[in-house]
Automatic annotation (TrEMBL):
Entry GO MF terms: manganese ion binding; myo-inosose-2 dehydratase activity
Catalytic activity from the UniProt record: scyllo-inosose = 3D-3,5/4-trihydroxycyclohexane-1,2-dione + H2O
Pathway: Polyol metabolism; myo-inositol degradation into acetyl-CoA; acetyl-CoA from myo-inositol: step 2/7
Name used for this protein in its record: Inosose dehydratase
Keywords: Cobalt, Lyase, Manganese
Species of provenance: Halobacillus litoralis
NCBIfam families (UniProt xref): myo_inos_iolE
Entries under SUPFAM superfamilies matching the protein: Xylose isomerase-like (SSF51658)
Residues annotated as domain Xylose isomerase-like TIM barrel: 37-282
Enzyme class: lyase
E.C. number(s) listed in UniProt: 4.2.1.44
Assigned protein family: Belongs to the IolE/MocC family.
Amino acid sequence: MFKDNAVKLGICPIGWTNDDIPELGKENTFEQCVSEMALAGFQGTEVGNKYPKDTKDLKKALELRQMEVASAWFSSFLTTRPYEETEMAFIDHRDFLHEMGAKVIVVSEQGHSIQKEDVPLFEDKPHFSEQEWDLLAKGLERLGDRAQDKGMEIVFHHHMGTGVQTKEEIDKLMQMTDENKVSLLFDTGHLYLSGEDPLDVLKLHLPRIKHVHLKDVRDPVAEQVRNENLTFLDGVRRGMFTVPGNGDIDFSSVFETLAHLDYRGWMLVEAEQDPAKANPLEYAIIARNYIREKAGV
């Protein structure tokens, strides 16, 4: 299906230990996390808070397991704080990822985000003013320039509970930014949960999609979150997200479209769950087998 060496497969550490809800997986170590990723058959990872901050230590641990770093999350606050504050933190983040050999930097705008707040996920989604949209677009382009200083690219992560969540908002951001400076991360789970057809975004924006997150959704839990006015983190605790092959998204068309349109880059399984309820190694193997079956990689 995919051309030879077109894609690399990775998995995010959030199924082992949750950076936003530290009690989830607090007993799981970095070493267990990356060892089980490799055991399940993945070749890459994004970086979590338990990962070594020293690049030499991290490189050694990953090389022992024949793993590499695909990217890492960066929170921007371009709509709510001075640009210089975001850029200073971004440069440190960029330099760390560059040293680790990553080619893309995941950026998510957290100005006004409710994903960590005690407010209903489906009721209180933030919306940007036109001034904030302008700050976001111009700020992202400047971060894109700083990434290119190191031969890297930023990939913007649309996300539930933020000002860039829906297809309409993604379309607007893509229209407002230079395609040579701002690329896009495609996340199946966040689009599906927002009520969008992920394929619509994929087909329209694939030339700018440089990073993919494979996240599945359990519809019954998502309905609980909606009907009971629960928060994003409530949904995580209840199991709203899961790995591909264990939820309600049909990934066959996603893989077919990515392959047909010649996507090249990382595809990373990302499913924040409570590891006490969803054994991380077991679910990593479920995802790896499903991707092998449906995508042929």
